[in-house]
Amino acid sequence: MHSIVHFPSPTLSLSPKISSFKAPLFVLTNNFLPPRFHGSVCRCISSSYNSRKPPGSSKTPKTPVPKSPTPKPKSPKSAGLKTPPPKPSTPTAKSNVSDSTEFLDAQDWSFLAETSSWINQNMATVVAAAQLEQDSKVVLCMGTERFVDYLCSVEPSIALSVLHYSLMELANIKENHDSVRCRQGDIAGIPPSWSKLDVVFINFLPALLCPLSQIFQALVKMCAPGARVIISDTQGRAQLNVNKQSYPGVINGDLPDKVELEKVMQGYPIQLVSFRDEPDFYLAVLKVA
């Protein structure tokens, strides 16, 4: 008879692939088998264990399902729908003024500081037309440093405020006249705290961004009854035409003649006191009722 020995949980070393598997096994010992069966039994056992799969590997791997491409939404045009035309971006008036002010701030304003004997004489005529008094509240628009020097020397006790687009010009004025109040801008941007003005000088009207009608509207609100508005150009209309060619981005308008000035004044409590329009001097004196 052949003897059978039972090993409850042997560790097999028949093949490196199955050396880690432990399972109950019946082994026919070589002592009771003829030698010609030894190799066959070993090959049988080895092939049997090599065909076994490790635990957990019996599950069939999932085959990835290809995702169907997401259909692109049809554009209104391809779907036969009418689309409204895009609305053009219209810049606001405030942004336009802000951009223009920044542009004018960087420009060269030295042409306003030209000096000569007749320009100095014209400047004295402009200041005399204002009929300044002590403690008068005065606003100077587009004034030069030289004009401020002369104005303060004539009447040092006035409460003077200066408007200009150029921060450099304002800084130079402030450096020499610390009591003078300076602000970047023009007549249309006068703050309410500057109200009840007695005199307003507009020294270079063609450079202002706001139209004359808007200037009159602001003056009526800010000026005290009987206030004087002095519109002047000490270089005159002839030099203005020359400056237009040299500084096209700075000079935005023109000096109004008498007919145009009176036409714009209609509807405002403003009257024309005197008017001069000469090649080398322009002066219009207005009075707020």
List keywords for this structure.
289 residues, alpha/beta, Rossmann fold, 2 domains, seven-stranded mixed beta sheet, two-stranded antiparallel ribbon, 8 helices, 31% helix, 19% strand, disordered N terminus
Describe this structure in words.
The chain has 289 residues and is an alpha/beta fold. The protein folds into two domains: 5-50, no CATH class; 100-288, Rossmann fold (3-Layer(aba) Sandwich). 31% of the residues lie in helices and 19% in strands. The protein contains eight helices and nine strands. The protein has helices spanning 38-50, 93-105, 117-129, 145-154, 167-176, 212-222, 236-246, 258-265; strands at residues 5-7, 25-27, 137-141, 159-164, 181-184, 197-202, 223-233, 270-278, 281-288. Strands 5-4-3-6-7-9-8 form a seven-stranded mixed β-sheet, with helices on both faces. Strands 1-2 form a two-stranded antiparallel ribbon. α5 (167-176) links the parallel β4 and β5 (181-184). The longest helix is centred in the first third of the chain and has 13 residues, at 38-50. The protein is globular. The N and C termini lie far apart (144 Å).
